[in-house]
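Record type: monomer structure entry
Structure origin: computed from sequence
Chain ID: A
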Amino acid sequence: MKIFIVDDDELVHKLYEMYFKKVVSITHKESFFNGFDAIKFIEDHIDTNLSVVDIILLDINMPIMDGVEFLDHFERIAPRLNKIPSIFIVSSCLIEKDFLMSRKYVTGLHDKPLSELILKNMIFNQVSI
C-alpha cells in the first residue's frame, strides 16, 4: 500500500504518520506540502513504479498549487499512469462538495483531519483480499 499526502499542514502529516505506524499495510508514504510538488513527482516518475500510488489524501487550500489545480493536472496525466489511485479530498473547508465529487478521479470527501478509523477504512477498502 502506497499513500501520498498532499497537504500544507505539517501537523496533519505528523498525525497521519502516527496512524500509519498502527496500520501494517502501509509500505510507502510520500509527503508533499503543495499540489505542484506532488504532480511534479508523479510526472517525473511516470514510467517507473514510483508513480504507482494507491491512495492520495488531498487538501484543497494550499499554496503554489491548490487541490483543484492538482486535480486539473492529474486528469491530464492519468491516462499515462499504470494505476489510477483513489483520491480522497481531506479538507477543513468542503464548501463545494458537489463540484469536488463530480471530478473524475475523486473517490470521496472527508473533513480534516481524518480520524484513525476513517483512515483505516480507506486503506483496508483498497487492499485486495
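Annotation 1: Strands lie at 2-6, 28-32, 55-58, 86-91, 106-111.
Annotation 2: Residues 19 and 116 are 6 Å apart (CA to CA).
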